Predict the 3D structure of the following.
Amino acid sequence: MTPLLQTTGLTAFYGDFQALFGIDLVVQPGEVIGLIGANGAGKTTFLRTVTGLLPAAPGAITFNGQPIGGARAESLVKLGIAMVPEGRKLFPSLSVEENLALGATVKRAGPWTLQKIFELFPILQERRKSPATKLSGGQQQMVAIGRALMSNPALLLCDEISLGLAPIVIADVYRALPSIRAAGASVVVVEQDIAMVMRVADRLYCLREGRVALEGAAAAMNRHDIGNAYFGAVA
Amino acid sequence: MISWLDIIVQGLLVGGFYALFATGLSLIFGVMRLVNLAHGDFIILAAFLALAIVQQTGLHPLLCLLVIIPVMGGLGYVLQRFILNRTLGRDILPPLLVTFGLSIIIQNGLLLAFSADSEELPMGSLTVASVQLLPGLNVGIYPLAVLVTAAAVIFGLQMFLYKTPLGAALRATSDDSTTIRLMGIDNRHIFGLATALSFAVAGLAGVLMGGYTNFSPAAGPANLLFGFEAIIIGGLGNLWGTLVGGMILGVAQAVGAEINPGYQVLAGHVAFFAILLTAPRGLFPRMAD
């Protein structure tokens, strides 16, 4: 089976600073991948490189078997890659509904429509005329997820969607994941909340200092391995 | 009494020109935080383009707008895509330097092509026609039409920005020009469109101004300054505020000129300075930054 996303020896730089040192990662169709690691391990850099916001070598990333490294972010949306960025990055000048509508600028075939997003997150329908950044943190995160889904992506990248949210709100946000998966999208979840990510992901990758320190089926991992991979401690 | 009323009304009408100068400037600053120091020179360029067309074809200057507006819009798009986009980044200096350079190039290019003489666009009987508002108070049809045009342009832009999907994309790009790319929208194209709109309005402003006052290749920077002052008086990011700002500037200048003709421009600057002191964010601020 052709992987949906595959990175091979992926490197990334911020000027002279190298942030990723040869990441090999595979996402199969329908999979939920958890990407964990300490701050500065390269998780967000990885997502930004895959979405085209940071440059990559042409052959280092393939999507449905097609090389996409170095392609511009806006063209990758058409191929089916969408991201829920860290910090939500909603457009403050726009209402909830306008933010969601902008997510559908690229309309791929698929189940997600404005109505479906409102069914997934009913509170957004009530607040649809409000300026997006006037909502609570959890509701804003729902807008960010909804906005990314509006393009009907084949691959949804979620960057720290639980950051700064109360535990009960995190549960609300994660409750959407099964529906997203059922609608056919693969998901990569970057998360600090390891307990949460172990519950939702099929497989985990743990990054440390720009390299893959550990990978495997989430169910087969134990706290000890993850702790070692996370902090680099020798058992 | 009526003479002071007359002065104020004439000043208000001149505000229409300043608002048109300012609208284009405000648009591209709003969308990409780019200060176009050559904006006034592009307004003058449009006036000279119209002059060349009138001299070659004998068309009425207002008919030239059918050519000038799209040509200026196209010029703005090309300039943004191929030059100005390369200057955008964290550093605010490159766009200032590049647009300053453009300003010098345009002024000298116009000097070569048209000489330093003052020119005027022949609007014919339009510029002398007037209507009586009150006994003893007449206003020119032409500046009144310009003020109405300025209001219509601002209304149209507001409708475009707040009621259309492309307008929403422009506002979103203004908020965050990186995240907009994750929506599948090429920010370079949106920047180009914003500058195209800005230049289209500058084209309109140039032709209308050319029919009202003399212009010469060196007149651009003064227009830029008046445009800036109108924006800042009105409050950054508020187009209706810009119209009011232009009117305040116009009235201050008219009152100054009445006291002493030499005080016309100075009075405008003094009013601007006074408002900046009392309300540093302008009278009707909207943007947070």
